[in-house]
Specification:
The protein has helices at about 1-20, 20-45, 60-90, 105-125, 130-145, 150-185, 195-200, 205-225, 235-240, 245-270, 275-295, 300-325, 325-355, 365-370, 370-385, 390-405, 410-435, 465-485, 490-500. The chain has about 500 residues and is mostly helical.
Length: about 500
Amino acid sequence: MLWILLAVPAVSAMLAFALPWNWPRRGLLVATSGAHLGLTTLAIARTPAAVLDGWVALDGTSLLFLAITSAVFFVVSIYAVGYLAHQVRVAEDPGREVPFVDYPEAVFTGCLLLFLAAMTLVIVSRHWGLMWVAVEATTLASAPLIYFHRHPRSLVATWKYLVICSVGIALALLGYFFLAVSAEVRELSPIHLTIADLENHARQLDPAWLKAAFLLLLVGYGTKMGLAPLHTWLPDAHSEAPSMVSALLSGVLLNCAFLAILRGHSLLVKAGLGDFSRELLVLFGLVSMVFAAVFVIRQADYKRLLAYSSVEHMGILSLGAGIGGIAGFGSMLHAVNHSLTKAMLFLAAGNTLHYFHTKSTLEARGLVRALPVTALVWIAGLLAITGFPPFGPFLSELMILKGMIDGSRILVAVVYLVALAATLAAMAAIVIPMVYGEPPRSESPAVASGPRPAGPRPGPRSRSEPLWSAVPPLLLAAAVLVLGVYVPQPLSDFLHRAALAVGAE
């Protein structure tokens, strides 16, 4: 089954590149994502056997992240069909000049499917080297997606993404060398760089080299995860990519990097060095939350606003994993909540951009009259992402706070609460005027942000929202609401397994 799980999106990507027609290609995208979700469901019901001498396998944590990836990608693929059709209509409109030319749809759809295949490989990898290759593959597959509109701003964002993440992945590779050295200096019998083999011999590895290896892994993969101050690529990439790509980058890709860090943390826990890795995770988590709170204030671009929110929540994930106990369980639950919530918000941002033709928070106003469904999603997303009940993030953030209190980490808890409050105030001050404010009476280039298609701007009272743009974010909003009210026992057991597998609980 694992081979099929990897092969389905990879083969579909090749077909997408080869197909000469757009609509069959879009159907292939949805069909492939649906098949991937079905195979993931089967894998959860009955964990498949390891393959490739244990290099590819599933445990509790990888099953959790696989489920998140597959579910979010399926919803985004439905949104993508309408989005791509919309882009074609805009390009073919003789009365509208567009200041950018999209990539061919074959390239975009093929790279989306390759992106899914690469993320799946990251999740199922049980060999450090294979995981490194897979993480690098996600970078290469997603770069053309960020550059889809081929606008100067998206080109800068793409190059920034490639360069910074490549530096990070190089540091992670150096960390793997240190892992190997930690075994060599103890003159152990030949040890393969599989996760299972290293964990079985964890107590025999050299502690100094092992600590250095984890530090490099944390910095390297932390760059891809968006932990501050290593996050500098993230606001540009999330802002300039198509909104559905931003949903995947924030809701799914960052989780893959987080999983790689958790694998390193698990190794140190089994080596008796868990205190070292926990303190580093807590430190990077707090720094990320503080950085995000500062940069969210008076943010003039609503997609960059959501990007900095992702930095904050990656900090929360890192913090929860570092605290451990019930906070570790909360971190796993928060990974689910953040993925669903942030995907929902980026799809809502895409709808807003389609209507107002600007990413400026000062110009995109009056959503409640212009796009009532999208306005509802924005309000629900604001409440969810800032930790208000009854939405899922409130529950997971509360668990992480309880873990801090149980562990007598009072100072950490104070910084955590202050950062959450600051982010709440800043985001509310931006989003509420977007939803309920009066739209500007005239264009104001001084506050415009990002590429703006030419042509007449729509009026403030149009209520027509196509199903392709309204239903996907509503589905995600419903899921986030349900998780805030009730966490099913099977999911709870699933989360416990995930936390235990990486030493977070």
